Amino acid sequence: MGEFHDARRALRRALRDTADERVLGTIAMQSGGEIRVSWYHEPHRRPVVAIAVYHHGLDEPYRDEGRTIRFHLDELPTLASSIARALDEAERYRQRTAPP
Fold it and tell me: What residue ranges do the domains of the chain occupy?
């Protein structure tokens, strides 16, 4: 790629190295990977909650950059109410399909 592309990637990598990232929860996937819910804050940027797929590599898990969703703080109430509705739907489904 070009000189500017390489410089931009190096800058982003440096910012990620100084970011505050705390894993809030982990969900094991049937494929062997995992989904991590994290608080993520890079210097001079707004904090986000990230939901990312991680695959197990030879040394340690690595993030699948194409399968990461980031939510800004003002989006969290809508996300929470949507997940609550999904949990309600799952409960209704289990009740309908449970053996007698």
Answer: 20-97
